[in-house]
C-alpha cells in the first residue's frame, strides 16, 4: 500500500481496524511539542487516485474488517460533504465497512453543526479521537494548543448530545516540573466532566526541530524525571472519577511502565503497578529518544 506519511499513527484501540491514509499534516500545526509545528506539512488530501488504488489493493487482499480508521493529522477538519462522500467511496470497494473513526481537534467538532454531526453519524462515523493534551489552561497556552479546557469540554458535550463516541489522550509531563501536579489534577477534572469511551496517556517526548525541544535545550523547560512522571500518572489516575465505564490505555512506547485496564474496576490494580514501579525507580531524567512509533 502506498503512503505519503513515513510513519502512520493510529490509536492502540484501533489495532484491528482497517487503515486508510486520506490526508497528511494538520490544519493547525502550531503545538510546540508536535512534529508538525515546523509548518512544513499543512493539512492536505491524499490524491483520489492513490486512495482508490489502496482501496482496490485491500479489496483484492480480501480484508474482512468492518471498521476503518482514516489516518492523517485531523481528518475531521474536512467538510461534512467530503467525509460523507468518502465513506460512500470506501464502500464501493469494501462494502462490509460499517464504522469509521479518525483524529479530530475540538475546534473541528465545533465547526460542524448538530445536523452535520447527525448526518456523519448516520453515514457511519463511530469514534473521534481527540488529543486534549492537558486540562490546565496555563499548560495549553504554554504549548500553544490553540484551545482551552472550556472549548474542549464544550466540543465533547456536543458529541455526547449527538451520540458520537470519543477517545481522549493527554500528555504526562507537559507542564514540566512546576506545573506537574496541576497537569494531573486539572486533566483528571476535564476527564471527569465528560464521558470518554477511552483515555490514552503518553509521556512528553521532545522531538528535534520543535519549539519544545528548543526550550528544553535552552533550559527554559524543565523535564520531569522518570520518577516524577510516575508520580504525576498516579495522581492523574487517583483523581479520575468518571460517570461511565472507560478503557484506560497507558502503554505507549514513551511510558516507562505500561498499564491498561477498565475504569473504574481496574483502577486499584493499575495504581498498584505504578506504585511498585515508583518504589523501584531511580531519579534520572526521562531520556527516551523518539523513533518511528
Description:
This protein is of the alpha/beta class and about 290 residues long. α7 (about 180-190) runs parallel beside α9 (about 225-240) and α9 runs antiparallel to α10 (about 265-280). The model is unreliable at about 285-293 (pLDDT under 50). The chain has helices spanning about 50-60, 80-95, 105-110, 115-125, 135-140, 150-160, 180-190, 210-220, 225-240, 265-280, and strands spanning about 20, 25, 45, 65-70, 100-105, 125-135, 165-170, 200-205, 245-250, 260-265. About 40% of the residues lie in helices and about 20% in strands. It contains ten helices and ten strands. The strands form two sheets. An eight-stranded mixed beta sheet has the order 1-4-5-6-7-8-9-10.
Number of DSSP strand runs: 10
Q: CATH top level?
A: Alpha Beta
Q: What is the CATH superfamily classification?
A: Aldolase class I
Oligomer: single chain
Supply the number of structural domains.
Answer: 1
Low-confidence stretches: 287-293
Tell me the Rg in angstroms: 19 Å
Roughly what fraction of the amino acids lie in strands?
Answer: 15-25%
Main sheet? Answer: 8 strands, mixed
Amino acid at each position: 500500500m502506498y503512503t505519503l506519511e513515513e510513519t502512520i499513527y493510529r490509536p492502540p484501540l484501533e489495532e484491528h481496524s482497517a487503515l486508510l491514509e486520506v490526508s497528511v499534516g494538520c490544519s493547525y500545526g502550531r503545538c510546540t511539542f508536535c512534529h508538525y509545528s515546523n509548518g512544513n506539512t499543512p493539512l492536505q488530501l491524499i490524491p483520489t487516485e492513490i486512495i482508490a488504488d489502496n482501496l482496490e489493493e485491500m479489496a483484492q487482499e480480501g480484508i474482512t474488517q468492518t471498521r476503518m480508521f482514516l489516518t492523517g493529522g485531523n481528518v475531521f477538519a474536512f467538510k461534512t460533504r467530503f467525509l460523507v462522500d468518502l465513506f460512500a467511496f470506501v464502500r464501493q470497494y469494501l462494502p462490509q465497512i460499517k464504522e469509521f473513526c479518525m483524529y479530530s481537534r475540538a475546534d473541528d467538532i465545533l465547526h460542524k453543526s448538530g445536523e452535520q454531526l447527525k448526518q456523519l453519524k448516520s453515514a457511519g462515523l463511530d469514534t473521534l479521537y481527540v488529543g486534549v493534551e492537558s486540562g490546565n489552561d496555563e499548560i495549553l497556552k504554554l504549548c500553544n494548543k490553540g484551545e482551552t479546557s472550556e472549548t474542549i469540554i464544550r466540543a465533547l458535550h456536543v458529541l455526547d448530545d449527538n451520540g458520537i463516541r470519543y477517545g481522549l489522550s493527554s500528555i504526562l509531563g507537559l507542564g514540566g516540573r512546576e506545573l506537574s501536579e496541576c497537569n494531573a489534577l486539572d486533566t483528571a477534572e476535564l476527564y471527569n466532566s465528560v464521558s470518554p469511551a477511552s483515555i490514552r496517556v503518553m509521556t512528553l517526548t521532545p522531538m528535534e526541530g520543535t519549539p519544545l525541544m528548543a526550550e528544553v535545550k535552552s533550559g527554559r523547560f524543565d523535564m520531569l524525571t522518570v520518577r516524577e512522571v510516575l508520580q504525576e500518572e498516579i495522581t492523574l489516575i487517583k483523581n479520575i472519577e468518571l460517570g461511565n465505564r472507560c478503557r484506560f490505555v497507558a502503554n505507549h512506547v514513551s511510558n516507562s511502565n505500561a498499564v491498561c485496564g477498565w475504569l473504574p474496576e481496574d483502577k486499584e490494580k493499575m495504581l498498584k503497578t505504578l506504585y511498585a514501579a515508583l518504589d523501584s525507580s531511580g531519579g534520572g531524567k526521562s531520556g527516551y529518544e523518539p523513533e518511528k512509533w
